[in-house]
Write a structure and sequence with these properties.
With about 160 residues, the chain is an alpha+beta fold. It contains 5 helices and 7 strands; from the N terminus they run ααβαβββαβββα. The termini are close together.
Length: about 160
């Protein structure tokens, strides 16, 4: 994952992939503003959260740590997606800014090789995000941050997966 992320890619042009990115942005927009119920399972139950979502998504998941970038885990939730279950992990910094990592099986109309593991930037939806595909899974990191801030966070996530 080494690109700076273009805005036009095979992933963005594929209908199911475009829908994945759009769903990630809307899931962020719906849950990030929540004060009392932003996640189903809070960070105090991190081990349970990872086990539960791993079981539901059918593969072992790793929970990236973004503390070094100033973002602490809020928790996560299970969401529906057009190709099956999706997971969303939410993080928040000291200023109250939130980012979400949305992931699930690769949308049906793309393959890993189509987009490689290069980051792609999207503004399709209510918040921008970076997304990528690797080893049969698609990932989208969304948040109301600058492109540069999101890219740094996406790179931190990628290096931990």
């Amino acid at each position: 994952m080494h690109g700076q992320g273009g805005t036009d890619s095979t992933l963005a042009r594929a209908p199911a992939a475009r829908e994945f990115v759009h769903q990630a942005a809307w899931a962020h927009a719906v849950y990030a503003p929540e004060v009392r119920h932003p996640v189903e399972v809070g960070s105090a139950q991190e081990e349970h959260l990872v086990q539960w979502l791993s079981k539901r998504l059918g593969r072992p998941l790793k929970l990236p740590k973004l503390n070094g970038q100033g973002f602490d885990l809020v928790g996560g939730r299970l969401l529906p997606g057009s190709d099956g279950a999706r997971a969303q992990f939410m993080y928040q910094n000291a200023r109250g800014e939130r980012v979400t990592l949305y992931l699930g099986s690769t949308p049906g109309d793309i393959r890993d090789g189509d987009a490689g593991t290069e980051f792609r930037y999207s503004v399709d939806g209510p918040v921008p995000g970076f997304y990528w595909v690797e080893e049969g899974f698609a990932y989208a990191l969304s948040g109301a941050l600058s492109r540069e801030q999101l890219l740094q966070l996406a790179q931190a996530v990628y290096h931990q997966l």
